[in-house]
Every structure is written in structure tokens, then in C-alpha cells.
């Protein structure tokens, strides 16, 4: 009980210092809990949606997948005769045919895309009774003919659509127009999909290109008949390639695709939360180390009156537990707020999430509390052990914790060994022959060098701080020299404070180098390999009507089609794989200058000929002139001669197998031929600008596709990488904020520790302004120390990662010096900001009271 009271008294006596550490715990726990709540809420939203939209039992084509469209762009379908069979099955209360397609684009009269900007699908289908499970008509009526369409309320609100507005639906089978006659509102949360409904005949004709066919049948079970029993009875009654699923099975299948995406987001965000926790550990270690040092005499008195080492140790750990519990409880609450904020941001971006679905599982606050408390207690363990080792006499003499030169030597040797092992791992990764092998070694190198720099930080602090001070502080005379001495006074403390900032900046530098190198490599590859003037592509494959519009554009020398086909390849050694093939027009050999190790690419576009990549040729023992058996999915099997082997060192189309579209058409039925994935065009000589303008005009009716020349393509690639990096930097900002709190706390505690010294300096003439400047300079030096270590470490990681990317064809190393220099200068401002409060408080000290401080 005495230990508990002592711990509580000490905790409350330093509540201001503890508050900053508690904020670090709060932020880290909040990010973890916010991520978990956000992910659980997303899962709840999709679970409700999938459960509401699924009938008791569904019947669909065997190979149909709810989140995929077949390679020909037209959904798989079943004849209406199957519906008649299903209706006769015992236990079926009702059955109806449904038509649905996600390979559509919806545009208004101004050719503006009505689809989602977040990747959510545009879904077109027929209005059925099953839709009433999840939607209700809130305005107008359901479509009754080929010129009528009903839209969902979210899309209508977002794009200000009204009754009577005309919409054009672009499908694989053609374009068709209809006027809005109704609006349907979701009963559950719609995460952002655009949904339109037609009458059944129109949906069949325009979306499937045939009448009397459906994409699935929705069955309702009679009272007392379970879904599993109905599925069994229907499966026994049907004889053919059908997929029969219960409501739960279909919902699980739909959830699986979304779950993969959600898992990536969830674990990525948890990874950044882990980085923030790691940075917070340094803050907590520094806080307790300094608090223990300031209570040296008090600890000596406790030991002198009978307190054991364990009791002193326990007292510090109890304080840490209080800190962890308070910070974690506040963090759990803040985490819910973060989740709501993320939901609002997603809604602004187009993904609608309702706070009514906010899901806080019991495991979330438990995980936050346990994680926060454990991390805090572990971080305080080293200072607690150090406090317990203080002998009573040494403490009463105010000698503090004994300087352990042997421990410092051991620490230095361990740090050098770890850093050396990490450097060796990075070298091994940079010289690896395969990217898959090198990536594992790279990961080991990053971890080892990071830990090594953290351990060796106090040794590096002496030299690095002196260099920074010589450049920045000497010009400020005695004040600058005092700031340098303060930063060097406790190298272990400076090392730990700088290490917290080092971690975040190392990741920033590494990702900047990788991102910049990817853009530079891709730009170089485009300049070297791409001969086409224009590239047309989008999120969906190019529909025939858009292809025709492109081919009829004036000023073009040629247009190249590019298709991807599902096929099984069997090499001469009898080994098979589902590698797939690429079919293109012969002009593709001009549009993409692929290097070959044997043969010529133009020869691969001859009759019954193809090319393979060097990786495939090596793996399966294929040589020029060999024949490969190609079994086209949905078509015939062909024996094609290998007329070229392309070099897979290139980044573009790496591993692609080429053949001509004429060869593909010979073995694949017309209704199985896939639309183009991408198309290329070359302008007539001297007509580049006119052809570019004409092509953009030709493609205006199809806003789902982008027309780019090579300059546009490079800029978009740069923007995409930049957006990704900005997102990552935003997440890393949490770790940097925690590191800034660490600098503030270190300076604040350092000011308290030097109270008498500050009073004496003020007494002999140091002005308040000079005092504040000294503390700000000390903060800047510590921040720049961490920045130098972090940026140097991050650039070495990034350069090594680029060597691995070079094995995948991205061979240009580009150091983004403006970013690196900007981050370094920004670190100085971070140091200035962190020193504002400690410097202000130091300047307000009463000189006499400071001198009299014991």
C-alpha cells in the first residue's frame, strides 16, 4: 500500500510531464482502435448489404463470379427454361429471373460519368421482387419499357438527377438511352455503388445481347424449409453446369473479395500505428529516465529507511501502469472519434458509410488497453531497473545513477555489430540475382540497421552534434556553445530523443527514393520502348463502339488493338500452366519496341506463331522454333510456333506472350473474343497535335476512357505515385507528431533538471531572450541529429530497394534531393516548434527561486 501511495504521489507531482507521455500513448492507441473500429464498421456495412441483397437460394452459371466479368465482357447467363425447372422443385415458394451486369458505364446528356470515383461498381439490371429486400421506390415508378430507367437515390442526389433526365448506358453489346422515371432508396447503407434498373426485356437485350436469358435465379423458400435443404433439393433437380448457393454462401463469396481489400487497408494502418508505438517507447523511456534522475535523493532516502530494490522498481512500474491505463482509456475513446472521422472522409470521397453501422467490438477497447499498458510498462522497465540499482549512500550524496562505462562499451559493441550485420544484409540484397530472394534480405537489413542505429545512437550523438553545432551554432557565440554542451551533456538522452524522429524520417526518405526512382525508371522505359503517340485505356475494357470511334478518327496513321486471353499453355516438355496470352495487331511491334533475345517480334504476329518471354523459355526449356500447345478458354486448341523470345528485363509487358489477333480469331469463337484492354495509335507524320485533338473529341462520348499522349502518361504516373506517397506521409505524420512530443518532453524535463544552473546563469547576466534562444538551439540540434540519421538511413534503404526493382525492369536510381533537403530544413522548424513551450517556461523562472532550488 505504501508503494502504491508513493507511486500515486510521484505521478501526480509530475502530472504535467506525464501528460505529454500520455498523449503519445493516447495517439498510438487511438490509431489502433480507430483502425479496428473503421474496419469492423466497413465489414458490418458490407455484411448488411450482401445479406439484404441475397435471396434464400440463388442459381447461377457454374463459372460465374459475382465480382468478375467474363473475358468477352458479357455476363454469363442461363436460359429461361431453367427457371421453369426450378419453379417445380418442392420447397420453392417463388422464383424469378434476374439480370445484372457490372461491365457498364452510365453517362448523362453532357457525357459526364455517373459512376463512383472510389472504385465502387456501376451495376445495371432488371427490377425484381428480390430488390425489395434492400430498396424501396421513393419517387416515380419502376421502369415499364425500353426508354425508361430507375436510379438509386444516392446517385441521383450526388449528380443532381431529376425525373425526366436522360441517361445513356454504355454496355459491351452497345449504347442505349432512357429517361429517369423512378428513384429507389437503399434500406441499408450503400457503400458507393451506382445502381440503375430497367425492365426485364430491355435488360436482357441490352446487357446480355439476347432475350430469354438471365444471369441468375432468385429463389424464396417455403415456410419451414431451410436454405440448406432447398439448395440440396434444387441441386438434385437440376442437371447441368450450375452453381447453387444459399444466402449465406453467396454473401460470404461477395464478402471475400471485399475482405481482401479491407485486410490490406487494415494491416497497413496498423503497421503505421506500430511505428507510432515504437516512437512512443523512446518518449516514455526518456521521461522515466529523467524523472528517476531528478528523484535520485528521494530514492536514496527510500532505500535508507528500508525500501528494497524491488519496491523502488515496482514504484516506477506502477507509475508507468497509471500512465498506460489513462492514456489507453483516452485513446480508446479518441479511436472511435478517428473512425467516425475516417467514415466522413470516405463519404466525402464518394464511399457512403453511415454512423448507424458504427461497430465497436468488445475486443477493440480490450486490445487498445492491453497494448497501451504493456508498451508503456515495457518502456519504463529499463529506467525502473536503473532506479533500483541506485545505492542509498550514492543517492543521498546526489551522485545519481552510477556511470557504467562497461555498459556503455557493451552497448557500443552491440550497436556496431547490429549495424554491420544490417549493412551486410543491405549489400547482399543489392547484389541479389532475384527480387524475391533479395526482398527478404532487404527486410532483415532494414530491421538490423534500424536497431543498430538506435543502440549506437548515444555514441553517434557526440560526433554528429559537434559537426552540426560547428556549422549552425558557433555563430551565436557563448549561447550557441552552451546549447551544444547541453545537447552533449547526456548522449544517451540525446540519442533516444533523436532516434524517435529518426524512425519516421527514415521511412519518409526510403519511400521518397523508391517512389522517385519508380517514376524516373518508368519515364525512361516509356522514352525507350513506347513508339505509339497515343494510349487509350480506362478502368474497364474498351467497348466495341469506342473502338470503332477511335479507328474512325482522322489524322491517325494506324490504331493498334491489344487483348488479353485466358489460355492454358503446354510446353514441349509437357508441363502446363495458365499463363495466358496477349493478342495484338502487327503494328504493336512498332508501338512497343520490345527487345528480343531470339527472333523478331514482327515474326510472332505471323499465322500460327507466337512469342514467349525469357523467363518462361528458361523455366520450361522452350527454344526458338518449338511448338507450344495453346488451349483457348471457350475455344479450340492450337499448336503455335515460337517465332520470338522477348527479353523480360523490360518493365513494360514483362512476361507477355504475343500473337496476332488474326491467330486468336482462328481458334476463338466470335462471341468469346474479349474487348481490348488498351489501344494505341500513331499519328500521321506532322499531324500529332491535330490527331490528338481529334482523338480526344472522338472519345468524348466515352468518359470512362482516358486519351493520353506520352507526356500525359508520364504526368499521370508521377501524380499517382505522388498521391500514394502523400497518403503514406500522412500516416507517418502520427509517428513524427509523437517524436515531436518526445523532444518537447525531453526539453521540459531538462529545464527542470537544470533549474539551479539556469538561475545562476540568469544571475550572472544571461537575459531571458538568450536563455530562450539557447533552449531553441539545443532543440534544433537534437532534431537535426535525428534528421541526419533518419535521412541517411532511409536513403540507403531506398537505394537498396531500387536495386531490387532494377531486376523487374525499373533500373533508374533517382534521389529526390528537393524532398530530402526540404525534410531536413523542416526538421529544424520541428525543433524550433518543440522548444516553444520549454523555452517560454524557462524564461519565466524567478531567478532567486531557481538558485534556491535543491
Automatic annotation (TrEMBL):
Keywords for the protein's UniProt record, in alphabetical order: Cell membrane, Membrane, Transmembrane, Transmembrane helix
Annotated localization: Cell membrane
Domain of life per record: Bacteria
Segments forming domain MacB-like periplasmic core: 19-236, 497-688
Boundaries of every ABC3 transporter permease C-terminal domain copy: 272-392, 731-846
Protein name: ABC transporter permease
Source species of the chain: Streptomyces dengpaensis
Transmembrane segments: 267-293, 316-342, 362-384, 409-428, 440-473, 494-514, 727-752, 779-799, 819-840
Family in the record: Belongs to the ABC-4 integral membrane protein family.
Entry keyword Cytoplasm: no
Main localization category: membrane
Origin organism lineage: Bacteria, Bacillati, Actinomycetota, Actinomycetes, Kitasatosporales
InterPro entries: ABC3_permease_C, MacB_PCD, Macrolide_Exporter_MacB
Entry membrane topology: Multi-pass membrane protein
Amino acid at each position: 500500500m505504501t508503494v502504491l501511495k508513493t507511486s500515486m504521489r510521484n505521478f501526480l507531482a509530475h502530472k504535467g510531464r506525464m501528460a505529454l507521455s500520455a498523449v503519445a500513448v493516447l495517439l498510438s492507441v487511438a490509431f489502433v482502435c480507430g483502425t479496428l473500429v473503421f474496419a469492423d464498421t466497413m465489414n458490418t456495412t458490407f455484411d448488411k448489404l450482401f445479406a439484404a441483397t441475397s435471396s434464400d437460394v440463388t442459381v447461377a452459371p457454374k463459372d460465374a463470379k459475382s465480382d468478375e466479368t467474363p473475358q468477352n465482357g458479357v455476363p454469363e447467363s442461363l436460359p429461361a427454361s431453367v427457371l421453369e425447372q426450378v419453379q417445380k422443385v418442392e420447397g420453392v415458394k417463388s422464383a424469378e429471373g434476374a439480370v445484372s451486369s457490372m461491365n457498364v458505364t452510365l453517362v448523362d446528356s453532357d457525357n459526364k460519368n455517373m459512376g463512383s470515383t472510389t472504385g465502387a461498381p456501376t451495376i445495371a439490371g432488371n427490377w425484381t421482387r428480390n430488390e425489395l429486400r434492400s430498396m424501396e421506390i421513393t419517387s416515380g415508378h419502376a421502369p415499364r419499357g425500353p426508354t425508361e430507367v430507375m436510379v438509386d437515390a444516392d446517385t441521383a442526389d450526388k449528380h443532381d438527377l431529376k425525373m425526366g433526365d436522360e441517361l445513356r448506358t454504355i454496355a459491351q453489346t452497345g449504347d442505349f438511352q432512357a429517361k429517369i422515371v423512378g428513384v429507389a432508396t437503399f434500406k441499408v447503407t450503400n457503400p458507393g455503388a451506382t445502381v440503375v434498373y430497367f425492365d426485364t426485356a430491355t435488360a436482357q437485350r441490352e446487357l446480355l445481347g439476347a432475350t430469354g436469358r438471365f444471369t441468375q435465379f432468385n429463389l424464396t423458400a417455403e415456410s419451414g424449409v431451410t436454405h440448406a435443404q432447398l439448395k440440396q433439393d434444387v441441386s438434385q433437380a437440376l442437371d447441368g453446369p450450375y452453381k447453387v448457393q444459399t444466402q449465406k454462401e453467396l454473401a460470404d463469396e461477395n464478402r471475400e473479395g471485399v475482405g481482401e481489400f479491407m485486410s490490406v487497408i487494415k494491416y497497413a494502418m496498423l503497421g503505421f500505428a506500430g511505428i507510432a508505438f515504437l516512437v512512443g517507447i523512446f518518449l516514455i523511456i526518456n521521461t522515466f529516465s529523467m524523472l528517476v534522475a531528478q528523484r535520485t535523493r528521494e530514492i536514496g532516502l527510500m532505500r535508507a529507511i528500508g525500501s528494497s530494490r524491488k519496491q523502488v522498481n515496482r514504484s516506477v512500474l506502477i507509475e508507468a501502469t497509471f500512465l498506460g491505463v489513462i492514456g489507453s482509456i483516452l485513446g480508446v475513446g479518441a479511436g472511435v472519434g478517428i473512425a467516425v472521422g475516417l467514415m466522413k472522409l470516405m463519404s466525402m470521397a464518394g464511399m457512403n458509410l453511415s454512423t448507424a453501422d458504427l461497430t465497436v467490438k468488445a475486443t477493440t477497447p480490450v486490445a487498445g488497453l492491453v497494448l497501451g499498458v504493456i508498451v508503456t510498462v515495457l518502456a519504463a522497465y529499463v529506467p525502473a531497473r536503473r532506479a533500483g540499482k541506485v545505492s542509498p549512500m550514492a543517492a543521498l550524496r546526489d551522485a545519481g545513477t552510477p556511470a557504467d562505462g562497461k555498459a556503455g562499451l557493451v552497448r557500443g559493441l552491440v550497436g556496431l555489430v547490429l549495424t554491420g550485420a544490417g549493412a551486410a544484409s543491405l549489400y547482399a540484397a543489392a547484389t541479389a540475382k532475384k527480387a524475391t530472394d533479395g526482398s527478404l534480405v532487404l527486410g532483415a537489413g532494414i530491421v538490423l540497421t534500424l536497431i543498430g542505429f538506435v543502440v549506437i545512437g548515444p555514441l553517434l550523438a557526440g560526433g554528429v552534434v559537434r559537426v552540426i553545432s560547428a556549422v549552425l551554432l558557433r555563430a551565436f557565440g557563448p549561447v550557441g556553445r552552451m546549447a551544444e554542451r547541453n545537447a552533449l551533456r547526456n548522449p544517451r538522452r540525446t540519442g533516444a530523443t533523436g532516434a524517435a524522429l529518426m524512425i519516421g524520417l527514415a521511412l519518409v526518405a526510403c519511400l521518397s527514393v523508391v517512389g522517385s526512382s519508380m517514376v524516373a525508371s518508368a519515364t525512361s522505359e516509356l522514352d525507350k520502348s513506347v513508339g505509339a503517340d497515343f494510349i487509350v485505356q480506362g478502368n474497364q475494357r474498351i467497348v466495341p463502339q469506342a473502338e470503332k470511334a477511335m479507328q474512325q478518327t482522322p489524322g491517325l496513321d494506324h490504331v493498334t488493338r491489344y487483348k488479353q486471353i485466358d489460355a492454358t499453355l503446354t510446353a514441349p516438355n509437357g508441363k502446363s500452366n495458365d499463363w495466358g496470352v496477349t493478342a495484338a495487331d502487327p503494328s504493336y511491334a512498332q508501338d512497343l519496341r520490345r527487345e528480343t533475345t531470339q527472333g523478331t517480334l514482327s515474326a510472332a504476329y505471323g499465322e500460327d506463331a507466337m512469342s514467349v518471354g525469357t523467363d518462361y523459355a528458361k523455366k520450361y526449356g522452350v527454344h526458338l522454333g518449338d511448338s507450344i500447345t495453346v488451349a483457348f478458354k471457350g475455344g479450340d486448341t492450337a499448336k503455335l510456333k515460337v517465332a520470338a523470345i522477348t527479353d523480360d528485363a523490360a518493365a513494360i509487358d514483362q512476361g507477355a506472350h504475343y500473337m496476332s489477333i488474326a491467330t486468336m480469331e482462328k481458334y476463338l469463337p466470335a462471341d468469346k473474343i474479349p474487348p481490348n484492354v488498351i489501344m494505341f495509335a500513331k499519328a500521321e507524320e506532322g499531324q500529332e497535335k491535330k490527331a490528338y485533338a481529334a482523338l480526344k473529341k472522338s472519345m468524348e462520348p466515352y468518359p470512362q476512357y482516358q486519351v493520353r499522349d506520352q507526356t500525359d502518361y508520364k504526368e499521370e504516373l508521377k501524380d499517382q505515385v505522388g498521391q500514394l506517397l502523400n497518403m503514406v506521409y500522412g500516416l507517418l505524420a502520427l509517428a513524427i507528431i509523437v517524436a515531436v512530443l518526445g523532444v518537447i518532453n525531453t526539453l521540459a524535463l531538462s529545464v527542470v533538471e537544470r533549474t539551479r544552473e539556469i538561475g545562476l546563469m540568469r544571475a550572472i547576466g544571461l537575459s531571458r531572450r538568450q536563455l530562450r534562444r539557447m533552449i531553441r538551439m539545443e532543440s534544433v540540434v537534437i532534431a537535426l541529429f535525428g534528421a541526419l540519421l533518419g535521412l541517411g538511413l532511409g536513403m540507403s534503404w531506398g537505394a537498396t530497394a531500387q536495386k531490387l526493382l532494377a531486376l523487374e525492369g525499373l533500373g533508374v536510381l533517382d534521389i529526390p534531393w528537393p524532398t530530402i533537403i526540404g525534410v531536413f530544413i523542416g526538421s529544424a522548424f520541428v525543433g524550433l516548434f518543440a522548444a516553444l513551450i520549454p523555452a517560454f517556461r524557462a524564461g519565466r523562472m524567478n531567478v532567486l527561486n531557481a538558485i534556491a532550488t535543491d
